[in-house]
């Protein structure tokens, strides 16, 4: 792997006041994510960066060896006695998820991505400017005092003020509800082709989304499904270790597994987020793989569209995050979106996290009558 860095001086200038460990720790976590949790590889890259950019020369009596010792002391890495190598600990896995979450939310603050509207209003948590007539059971904290007073004055006089039930106006509010989400991650070979690392941003989004749900939305559920020649479920703890393989793209089986997973979730709102950069190129037929990497094979595409229709019938929305710009692939995504009546975003690697987080948070608001 070849690195090209442009803002190292700026990064380290911002880290003034941090300890040598904290300064190197941020870079090391990025390298761990890129290396799919391979501590040995990340340390080799960090050493190369130190040799090329004199990272540790900024510190007094502190080098990469001291950093490794401190990683062990703080419980971020440990020795694998069987293989005699360093491996990540659960503490590091959690730290990578938290770092990804902070990174994506910092980007969100700069400018929101992803935007769609809901079509109903109702009782909930976040007050809206729109008002409606009061109904039995409405929270009095949401009464529109100005609108209510104006209604009362229309049929009152100076001597006698009369408040009728029909005068009372209340603010509409968004209702936050629990959501079951399955995140699909494409691990086909094209995710690292053409000199572009697409899998690292996808992993960061998955880690960040899982950390957000674990910490902030305990009633929600998140399942991760990776797919290549086949589809399989991935534990949240395994996210940093995901690697692209010499796989084709079995989108149909990924959607099928996601649909079956959501069937077991007793939630009113269910959704699938799919991160992919390529066309579906294989299916499993009679226990064997049927594949075609050239163009869009209608046999494969039709199986994917059939699965999208099944999801629609089960009230499962599919949101596709397409990280490729090929016109014929975009046409496929539009066809998939039409079949499911879902949504599609043609996202770049820089704004992928913003799109997904914005969509997830908005989908937690369901305006009900």
UniProtKB/TrEMBL annotation:
Short name of any one Pfam family annotated for the protein: VWA_2
* Amino acid composition bias (Basic and acidic residues), ranges on this chain: 117-134
Q: Where is this region: Disordered?
A: 112-134
Where does the record place the VWFA domain? Answer: 181-279
InterPro entries in the cross-refs:
VWF_A, vWFA_dom_sf
Q: What name does the UniProt record give this protein?
A: VWFA domain-containing protein
Lineage, top ranks: Bacteria, Pseudomonadati, Balneolota, Balneolia, Balneolales
């Amino acid at each position: 792997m070849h690195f090209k860095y442009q803002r190292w001086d700026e990064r380290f200038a911002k880290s003034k006041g941090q300890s040598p460990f904290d300064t190197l720790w941020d870079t090391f976590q990025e390298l761990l994510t890129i290396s799919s949790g391979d501590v040995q590889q990340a340390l080799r890259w960090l050493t190369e960066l130190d040799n090329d950019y004199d990272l540790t020369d900024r510190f007094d009596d502190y080098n990469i060896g001291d950093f490794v010792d401190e990683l062990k002391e703080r419980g971020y890495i440990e020795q694998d006695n069987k293989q005699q190598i360093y491996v990540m600990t659960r503490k590091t896995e959690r730290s990578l998820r938290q770092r990804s979450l902070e990174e994506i939310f910092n980007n969100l603050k700069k400018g929101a991505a992803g935007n769609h509207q809901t079509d109903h209003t109702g009782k909930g948590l976040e007050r809206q400017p729109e008002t409606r007539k009061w109904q039995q059971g409405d929270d009095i904290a949401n009464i529109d005092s100005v609108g209510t007073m104006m209604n009362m004055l229309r049929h009152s006089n100076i001597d006698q003020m009369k408040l009728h039930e029909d005068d009372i106006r209340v603010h509409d509010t968004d209702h936050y509800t629990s959501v079951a989400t399955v995140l699909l991650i494409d691990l086909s070979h094209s995710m690292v082709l053409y000199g572009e690392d697409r899998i690292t941003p996808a992993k960061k989004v998955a880690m960040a989304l899982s950390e957000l749900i674990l910490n902030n939305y305990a009633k929600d559920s998140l399942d991760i499904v990776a797919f290549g020649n086949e589809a399989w479920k991935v534990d949240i703890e395994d996210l940093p270790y995901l690697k692209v393989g010499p796989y084709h793209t079995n989108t149909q089986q990924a959607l099928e597994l996601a649909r079956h997973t959501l069937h077991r979730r007793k939630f009113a709102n269910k959704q699938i987020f799919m991160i992919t950069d390529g066309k579906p190129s294989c299916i499993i037929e009679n226990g064997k793989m049927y594949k075609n990497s050239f163009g869009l094979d209608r046999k494969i595409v039709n199986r994917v569209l059939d699965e999208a229709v099944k999801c629609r019938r089960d009230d499962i929305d599919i949101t596709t995050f397409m990280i490729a710009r090929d016109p014929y692939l975009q046409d496929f995504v539009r066809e998939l979106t039409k079949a499911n009546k879902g949504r599609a975003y043609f996202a770049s690697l820089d704004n992928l996290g913003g799109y997904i987080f914005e969509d997830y948070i908005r989908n937690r608001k369901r305006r009900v009558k």
